Amino acid sequence: MEIIGYGEDALTLWAIKNKLHAILQELNDNSDVSRCKVFFRPSFGRRGGEKSAQFGEFDFIILSKERIYLGESKWDGSSENKNGILELRDEQKFRHEVMKFYICQWFKGDFPDWSSFVRKVGKTTKHMGVEKPLAPVGSLLASNLQTLLETIKSHFSSLPEIRNILLYLHKGESSNPISRVSKDFDLVKIDYSQDSVDNFIRIVI
Asked: Is residue 48 very low, low, confident or very high in pLDDT (cuts 50, 70, 90)?
């Protein structure tokens, strides 16, 4: 089956499907692609703010042999590219901090359910100067987080290295070049021109 899509979401799916080996190579990661796991656009709620436990949606999360990659995607059609510099928004950086917190805390114990996790960790946490409630017991957010965290813990024998990456998808380096991204993010550039048709991308499933 061939899917024809447009924009960052379609390009991200194409890159994960067809270029995961190249992405890992750029990150000096020699993991076997067939043994990796990828969460595509995992959502942890769209409502932010200090009173909400929700903290946004990643474009992807990759579990390789030894690392977790928390990923954002941008393409060369993005207006966020300012003269070769792509600075992520605060809410994007914030969700990476929150997810790192959840992962690290989950590896500190064996939690049969979310209520035991909240009892151990507490009902609030603080990131980038912002007080944030944990996902409430019984919420869809808590269920989604527990599924993801259990998958991560079953994939690794101990807490792995966690890295932030920005996947920049371009139609040739000259299309809209990027030279620098936000601090604490690794830049990975992938050329999608070979599978593009005008402004669309072809994804073979």
From this structure: low
Total domain count for the chain?
1
List the domain range (segments joined by +) for residue 125: 2-204
Strand-pair partners of 109: none
- Beta-sheet strand order (sheet of 196-197): 2-5, 200-204, 196-197
Strand blocks (E) in the chain: 2-5, 37-40, 60-63, 67-75, 81-82, 85-86, 124-127, 130-133, 161-170, 180-181, 185-191, 196-197, 200-204
Are 13 and 40 within 8 A, CB to CB? Answer: yes
CB 136 within 8 A of CB 52: no
Distance between CA atoms of 39 and 48, rounded to whole angstroms? Answer: 21
Residue 120 phi/psi, 5-degree rounding, is -75, -45
Angle, vertex CA 166, rays to CA 24 and CA 69, nearest 5: 50
pLDDT, tens digit (0-9, with 9 covering 90-100), for 10-28: 999 999 999 999 999 999 9
pTM: 0.93
C-alpha distances in Å from residue 96, one per residue of 31, 86, 91: 23, 17, 9
Angle at CA 130, nearest 5°, toward 101 and 161?
20
